[in-house]
Design goal:
Distance between the termini: 49 Å
Bound molecules: 4'-deoxy-4'-aminopyridoxal-5'-phosphate
Number of helices: 10
Shape: globular
Order of helices and strands: EHHEHEHEEHEEEHHHEEHEEEH
Length: 360
């Protein structure tokens, strides 16, 4: 190895779900929303005054922060925006998990958490979910350098009650507790209502799922003024202009159309509920989900085989060959038409499995 290479920070990066170039792929692998963003987003982009781009954007993204603060009944000093919640969470790891003590998160959760911990050299201890993929609150009642819990969890889809999370937040006044609510709009209760009570609580949300804006990259954190102040100090020590002017304008338009958000969520939930029934009729078992995806194992056919068969036939879902979850597929909820194609393919596939085909 060359001498300089010894001094490189070596990390194993997060592997994002595939973004296929072929538009005919039925893409159920990265939990995007199948519907377009609110009409106001397109209008904001079409009407965007490009002469503004000669200037730097507002480093505080104040208008977007204010729109989000209004929507959540918070003060703008309690809101922080970033380039997707990945950016916000990475910043929060860097800002709040500095004690040298291990941070805690579930053994099955968003696979970026251990990557950020390794990147920032933060020790961590994974806490095993129970057999139903639920968190055991007692696991979080010990000394730690911080806690992060996705709620609903990914990739399981399982929702924890706010009352359980509140016990964890309350039991840890010496740590920052982050609740990652990327999927909360699809049926979960947010912990944002606890922010004024607990100075150590940071709640993150995203525009990538329920707001159909994964391609725009907006995420945000809500917390006490103190937490947000510390986050901003780190952000401004890193890059003042994380939010570009176009994104800020389009993001505001999305926040201003609450009715469209609720309509979109209702459509996804309606499709999810019927697909749950159909998957279960096909022999899949899964924990109940409060998200825009279903984390399902089949009674007889190994997940990896189903994954490969789907992939070969142009249907992409997500599969991880990892302990405890290697027999599960994470299937995002697409349009009704896309889900019909999925179900119809699976019916044929299992039909051939059960009638003496080689996979049965
Ligand atoms: N948290 C969880 C649990 C997620 O699944 C995702 C999406 N991959 C994110 C955060 C990040 O989403 P984004 O950066 O698009 O806001």
């Amino acid at each position: 190895m060359m001498s300089w290479e010894k001094n490189v920070r070596k990390v194993v990066p997060y592997v994002a779900g595939e973004q296929p170039k072929n538009p005919n792929i039925i893409k159920l692998n990265t939990n995007e929303c199948p519907y377009p963003p609110a009409p106001g987003v397109g209008a904001a982009l079409h009407g965007f005054d490009c002469s503004i781009l000669k200037r730097y954007p507002d480093p505080d993204a104040a208008l977007l922060v204010e729109a989000l603060a209004r929507r959540h009944g918070l003060s703008p000093k309690q809101v922080f925006v970033g380039v997707g919640s990945d950016d916000v969470l990475a910043m929060a790891f860097m800002t709040f998990f500095q004690s040298g003590k291990p941070i805690l998160f579930p053994d099955i959760t968003y696979s970026f958490y251990d990557v950020w911990a390794d990147l920032y050299q933060i020790p961590y201890e994974c806490q095993p979910l129970d057999e139903y993929f639920c968190i055991r609150k007692e696991d979080y009642f010990k000394e730690n350098g911080g806690i992060i819990i996705a709620n609903p969890n990914a990739p399981t889809g399982v929702l924890a009650q706010v009352s359980v999370l509140e016990e964890i937040i309350k039991a840890n006044p010496d740590s920052v507790v982050i609740i990652d609510e990327a999927y909360v709009d699809f049926g979960g209760e947010s912990c944002a209502g606890l922010i004024n009570q607990y100075e150590n609580l940071l709640v993150t949300q995203t525009f990538s799922k329920s707001r159909s804006l994964a391609g725009l990259r907006i995420g945000y954190a809500m917390g006490s003024e103190k937490l947000i102040h510390y986050l901003n100090d780190v952000k401004f020590s890193f890059n003042s202009y994380t939010m570009n002017a176009v994104t800020i304008a389009a993001g505001i338009a999305s926040v201003e159309d609450e009715a469209y958000l609720q309509d979109t969520v209702a459509k996804v939930v309606r499709t999810r509920e019927r697909v749950k029934k159909e998957l279960s009729d096909l022999g899949f078992i899964f924990p109940d989900t409060m998200t825009n995806f279903i984390f399902a194992a089949h009674e007889t056919v190994p997940a990896q085989e189903i994954f490969e068969a789907l992939r070969t036939n142009g249907i992409y879902v997500r599969y991880w060959n990892k302990p405890r979850i290697s027999n599960y597929l994470r299937i995002s909820i697409g349009t009704d038409e896309e889900m019909d194609k999925l179900i119809s393919f699976l019916k044929d596939y299992f039909g051939s499995c059960y009638t003496g085909g080689q996979k049965g």
